[in-house]
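=== RUN LOG ===
request id: a7f3
mode: sequence -> structure
chains: 1
length: 273
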Amino acid sequence: MKKRIGILGCGWLGLGLSQSFVEEGHDVHGSRQSNKGVNFLQENGIRGFVVQVHEDQIIGDLSAFLSKVNCLFLTLPPGIRKNPKRNFIAVIQQLVPHIQNTKVQQVVFTSSTSVFGPQQGLVTPQTIPLPESESGKQLLEVEKILLSQPHFSTQIVRLGGLIGDDRHPVKQLSKLPIVHNPEAPINLINKTDAIGLLRYLSEQAPWQKIYHGVAPWHPTKKDFYLHAAKQLQISSPKFSSEKGVATKVVSDPYIESGAYRFVEPKLGLDLQL
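=== RESULT ===
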């Protein structure tokens, strides 16, 4: 059945998600912040709109973007690392009333596992987050705002570190003088599976729920990145001789029970560690 999908924030992940819907014949509304970006969306079969959501105003034709949209994906990055003064909570609060006045019935928000801050051990969607960073604190508040809305149903998908295409953390780690916590488990997800999981959850999973988007494989940071560097033929990162105390493993029993079948469970590596 053909649907009209809205994807607010067609960046690296949002663009791929949009294209996956277009390939199946759905009508996709996508947003970018400039006319040049909108032209790029149009070239990829996505009906593009210039939409800029700020703390105190919305620039662009948000009404046209939301027109007759059934399911809305909010793939907006908080942007707090680049701009520590950014109030992402206000951005979402600016947006919500506009969604309420439309036919949007379902909203999927891509959050982050950073809401768990320095917590250690196994963390699931039932674990109470204790965020430490400003980004984590704001994301947690945004989750609560969206889940409390009576006019639409919500899914929160907390994604782990995203890799795929030419994006891989080892490229940055290899440039650092030292990488700490070498024995820490990794909590990553390939872009292909992030898109697949968002699609699966929105189409088949219960609403008013929180999900974790992380590959069910957690080798140590040292093992994973040493092999990744070798496979990508780049310099290996230099790891601290101290093991560190990081033990966090992000898990979701619902997804790992077989609800979703991962395409890249080994995150692109060509052998098991």
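=== NOTES ===
The chain has one domain: 4-164+188-216+249-259.
The mean pLDDT is 96.
=== END ===
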